[in-house]
Amino acid sequence: MIDARELRNALGHFATGVTVVTTRGPSGEPIGVTVNSFAALSLDPPLVLWSLAKRSWSLPAFEAASHFAIHVLASDQQALSDRFAKAGHDKFAAIEVGQGVANVPLLQSCTAVFQCSVEHRYDGGDHVILVGRVELLHTRSAAPLLFYRGRYATPEYEQPPATGLLKLLLAA
Ligand SMILES: Cc1cc2nc3c(=O)[nH]c(=O)nc-3n(C[C@H](O)[C@H](O)[C@H](O)COP(=O)(O)O)c2cc1C
Description:
It is a single chain. This protein has helices spanning about 5-10, 60-65, 80-85, and strands at about 15, 20-25, 30-35, 40, 45-55, 65-70, 100, 105, 110-125, 125-140, 145-150, 150-155, 165-170. It is mainly beta and about 170 residues long. The protein has a single domain, classed as Roll (Pnp Oxidase, Chain A), CATH 2.30.110. A seven-stranded antiparallel sheet has the order 3-2-6-9-10-5-4. The chain is globular and about 40 Å long. The structure holds flavin mononucleotide. Flavin mononucleotide (FMN) binds near residues 34, 85 and 87.
């Protein structure tokens, strides 16, 4: 029998980036949640996936949504990650948003944005797995925000990325 806390700790050894996934709720309200379960899935067709806890406040919105946008955060967007990691509905207060495909709210200054239509939803234990088909994408060269063993980390980042050295600096 695997202990849930031990499993969570072990999974934390897998360093990830940090994303915020957004959509619109049934009444048109903006919805967003901080997510590090994002993963590339397929190049042809262009598919990505992420998973959302079934106990999340935003689950009904993502279960009904036809589209969502995945924002890969830059190293200076930790506050945005914290804001969207709290349950509730007022996460967009005083945030400037753009309008994406199907009116999905778009956050500014991220390193990559994948605008997706919902291709599949699967049961995943205490999570729902959402598979998106990438309809539009944007990228911007910037150092990424990382998450490792329950803490944020930022890399030392040199341009251009092809020759840059990444060195982990754990956030205090
Ligand atoms: C770095 C980080 C990554 C996270 N990744 C996920 C994730 O992949 N899936 C998930 O359901 N929650 C994830 N969370 C937790 C949610 O952001 C958090 O439960 C949030 O309150 C959900 O918002 P909601 O309850 O308004 O839907 C993550 C939190 C942090 C800080």
